[in-house]
Amino acid sequence: MSNKSTHIAILGAGAIGQLIFHQLAPAKQIPYFFVRGESRDEQVLSFCALSGKKSQTIARLVNLTEDKKQCSERSGEDSVYSLAVQTRLLIVCVKAYQVKAALKNLLPQLPTSCHILLLHNGMGPHLEIAPMLSGRGLSLGTTSQGALRTESWSVKQTGEGVTQIGSLSGPSMTPDLKQLLISAIPNIEWCEPILPFLWQKLAINAAINPLTAIENCSNGALAAEKYRQQICDIVEEIVDVALATGVHLDKISLTKRVFNVIGLTRANFSSMHQDVVNQRRTEIDNINGYVVERAKEYGLTAEVNETLLKQVQQLESGYLT
Ligand code: KPL
């Protein structure tokens, strides 16, 4: 495989971005990161080093060697630009609410042959970035691999999980890139069409995440009888909205799956619970918020999801400025 054929970049060096880096690293080409610079404040996240304006040179490109202790950073437009133009696959691992802003300045620097893979919780960014793609192929994915960033450049795998990826629009990922991901990422599944799989994951997160944040409880606490009807209603609304968008989900098996995940992860605190406890922005807009938006678009209501959306937004308004 030539050097040119394996240029892979990862956008976002959070826990999942770094985990994927280490999974891809044994392949011939070490992937590289595009990360935000300057401000660590998620609210002012910006990747504009590649905008061509020298005054805005704030993104950094990080070359992390296989030994995670050694991390060489290169900043400046020249080195960032020269790698950007060779990128064949960009794996986007930032939070859903950061995707559009993160890609806005980076995309014009990538070749139109560069394939984009979005890997985040929740749904929605694929609709926002569709007009920005200029014919580039887009794949979507979801991963339930567990990872915890222990320091800036150190990550610990906390759980095995499935990674599901599939093509959404434009040219498909080339077979060599696909093969590289299949051989590097454990338990990876190619799922086409991908949208039903993303809706199923969305239903799991929509049922578990906001309830655990609002009730300040572990995932397992949701097995109590008092939450059963509410969880069934959340799933039912999602099945109806997904159907309106053209995606058929099986209500009974999906509800069973949600309760199964509650049981399997009973000792865990959901990511949204942790976001609220740590006073971070949550992914509610891309989880229950996405359901509510799609419901409105198709003339439906999703009252149970909307109530949860408002309750979590209320929690966030207590600490986000
Ligand atoms: O994905 C999760 C999350 O916390 O975001 C679940 C499946 C709910 C596990 O905690």
UniProtKB/TrEMBL annotation:
**Is NADP a UniProt keyword of this protein?**
yes
* Pathway(s) served: Cofactor biosynthesis; (R)-pantothenate biosynthesis; (R)-pantoate from 3-methyl-2-oxobutanoate: step 2/2
User: What family does the entry list?
Assistant: Belongs to the ketopantoate reductase family.
Q: What does this protein do?
A: Catalyzes the NADPH-dependent reduction of ketopantoate into pantoic acid.
Question: Ketopantoate reductase C-terminal domain: which residues?
Answer: 198-316
SUPFAM superfamilies xrefs: 6-phosphogluconate dehydrogenase C-terminal domain-like, NAD(P)-binding Rossmann-fold domains
In this chain the Ketopantoate reductase N-terminal domain maps to 8-169
Q: What is its EC number?
A: 1.1.1.169
- In terms of superkingdom, the source organism counts as Bacteria
Q: Tell me the keywords, alphabetical order.
A: NADP, Oxidoreductase, Pantothenate biosynthesis
What is the protein named?
2-dehydropantoate 2-reductase
**Reactions that this protein is recorded to catalyse:** (R)-pantoate + NADP(+) = 2-dehydropantoate + NADPH + H(+)
Print the organism lineage: Bacteria, Pseudomonadati, Pseudomonadota, Gammaproteobacteria, Alteromonadales
**Gene3D superfamilies recorded:** N-(1-d-carboxylethyl)-l-norvaline Dehydrogenase, domain 2, NAD(P)-binding Rossmann-like Domain
Top EC class of this enzyme: oxidoreductase
